[in-house]
Amino acid sequence: MYALFQTFDWSATALGAADNWPAALTMTLRMMFSSPVAMAVLAGRDGVMIYNDAYIEIAGKRHPDCFGQSVLTTWPEVAAFNRQIIADVFAGETASFEDAPLTFYRNGAAENVWLDLDYSPVVDDDGSTIAVLAILAETTKRVKAEKALRDNQERLSLALSASGVVGIWDWRVREDRVYADERFSDLFHVPRELARDGAPISAYLASIHPDDVASLEAAMTRAIETGESLTSEYRIVQPEGGVRWVLAEGRPALDEHGICVRFPGVAVDITEHKAAVEAHARSEAAFRTLANAMPQMVWSTRPDGYHDYYNARWYEFTGVPENSTDGEGWNGMFHEEDQERAWASWRHSLETGAPYQIEYRLRHHSGVYRWVLGRALAIRDDRGRITRWYGTCTDIHDTKMAAAEREVVAHELSHRIKNIFSVLSSIISLSARSKPDAQPFALELRKRIEAMGRAHDFVRPHSQASRPVPVEQSIFGLVEELLVPYGNAEERISVSGEDIQLGDSAATPLALLLHELATNAAKYGALSGDAGKLAISGRQHETDYILEWREHGGTGAIGEPDQEGFGSRLMRISVEGQLGGKLVRRWEPDGVHVTVTMPRAAVTRTNRLSGQ
Predict the structure, then answer these.
(1) Dihedral angle sign, alpha carbons of residues 174, 175, 181, 184
(2) Which terminus of the chain faces fewer neighbouring Cβ atoms within 10 Å, N or C?
(3) Averaged pLDDT in 10-residue chunks for the chain of 612 residues
(4) Is the separation of the CB atoms in 90 and 45 below 8 Å?
(5) d(CA 164, CA 507)
(6) DSSP count for the chain of H helices, then E strands
(7) How far is residue 260's CA from residue 130's CA, in Å, rounded to a whole number?
C-alpha cells in the first residue's frame, strides 16, 4: 500500500500533491503504513481514504477502487455513520466502538459485520484538525462464534429441560474440581460462582442424604477404577426440609495409562417419577389387599386380553400353581362344552370393548366343575383407549342348582294347577250331561276356566324349557288369552294400537287387572249383553305405555260406586303399587272408560330364571 501511495496521482484529488501536505499528516501516514494493525486515514472533510495493508481484508472487493476516494461515496451504505464521525472528530472529539454492528456490501451482497473502531484527530501545527485516524479490528468471526455458542447453550438448556436433565458437571479428578452449570449448582446448593470456577467434590456430597453417600461414593470409585459408566439414584436434602431424588449418569475419561482424568455427567431430577412409582406401588398393594379380601375370584388382563393377575381366591378355588393360568391358560380351566363359547364371548369383548358376562363351568380343585358367573369391564384412558381389563368370577353353582330345583317344583306345581283346571272342566261337563237345560251355562263356565288356565302361563314365570305352550309375550297377547271366554271376540272386542313386550314381573298384576275389568264388564258392563262392545287400545308416550279400556252399549248406565270395593282396591294395588303407574276410571253415559299409564321399564321388566 505504501508503493501504491507513492505512485498515486494525488494532484487529481482534493488533497493536492503529496509534497505539499502538512507534516502531521505525513508522519501519521508513515506510522500507519508500518503498522500491522488495520488503519485508515480519512483526510479532509470529504474523508479521502488512505489505508495500509491490514485494511485490505476489511475493504474486500472495494479495494483498490476506494483508495484515494471519499469514504462517503465509496461506502454509501455507512455514509451517514462516517459523515457523523468526521464531523465529531473535526470538532475535536474522539470516538470508540466495541463490536459495532454494520452492514457492508464490500463483496457485492449485504453482509453483517462487527468491528472494534477507534477514531482520533490528526492535528496540524496550528492545532486544527486535518484528518481522522481510524484504527479498525474486525470481530465478526468472534461475535458469530460467541453467538453460536450462546445459541448452542440455549438449545442444550432447552434439550436438557425437555429431557428432564437438571444439570451437567465435569469433574477434573486430579485437581478435584467440579465445574458445573447453574442448574446443577443450584440443585446441590453450591454457590454459582464457586461452581463456575470449580468446587471440590466434597461441596456437592455435602447436600446428599447421609444414607446415600456411602453407596454413591462406592459407585463413583468403581467407575473411576474400571472406566465403567456411573448410574446412581440418591436423595438431596433441601434447606427447607424434604428431599429431591436425583438420577446421576456419567462416564469417566481415562488417559493412556488407564487413569481417570475427567468425569463428566448429567443429573436428572426424578422426584416426581419416584413419587409416582411409590404411589403406584401403594395403589397396587391396596388393590391386591382388597382383591384378596373379596370372596370372588378377581383377575385382570392387559389391553390385548393377556391375563397377568389373579387374586388368592382364584388359586384357592382352582388349586392350580401360581402363574400357570397366565395368558390363555385360563380357558383350559373351563368345561370342554363351555370353552368355545367362553372364548368367543371374550374375543367379542376385546374387539368391541363391550362388557364381558358369561356363565360357565369352572374346574374346582376337587376335580368337579362348578357353575361360575364371569364378568369384566374395560378401563379406558382420557382418549378412550383401553388400558386394562378387570374381571371377577363368582361361584353361582349352589344358586344355580337351587334355581333348577325350584324350576322343577314350580313346573310340577303348575302342572298340578292345570290339572285342577282340567278336573273342574271335566266335572262341569259331566254335571251338564244330566241337566240339558244347563249345558249353555256349563259351556260358558268351562271356557272361562280354560282361559284362566291359559292365563296361568302368563302369571307364572318360566324358563324356555319349562314354558308349556308358546305364548306371545305381549300385553295384547295377554288380553286375547284372558278375553277368550267372552266369545265373539272379533265382533264385540277390538284390540288396536301399539303392542309392547311383556315381562314376567308385570304379567301377574296386569292379568289381575284385566281379569277384574273383564269380570265387571261381564256382570254390569259392555259384555253383559249382546249389544255391548269393548275397545282396547295401546300406545307409547315418551317413557310410558298407556292402555285404554272403553266400553260401549252395555245393558244400562252404571254410575260410580259409593265406596271402593275389593276389586277396585285390587286393580289400584296392581297398577300403582306393583307397576308404579296410574289408574284413572270414568263412568260415562255410554260405558266405563279406564286409562292405565305405566312406565315402559316396569312393563318389560323380567325376573326370568337363569339359564334361558
Answers:
(1) positive
(2) C
(3) 95 92 95 96 96 96 96 96 96 95 94 96 94 96 87 65 70 91 86 90 92 93 91 90 89 90 88 81 76 84 91 91 83 88 92 93 93 93 92 89 73 71 78 77 70 60 51 79 69 90 82 84 82 91 94 70 77 89 90 93 70 37
(4) yes
(5) 67
(6) 20, 21
(7) 65
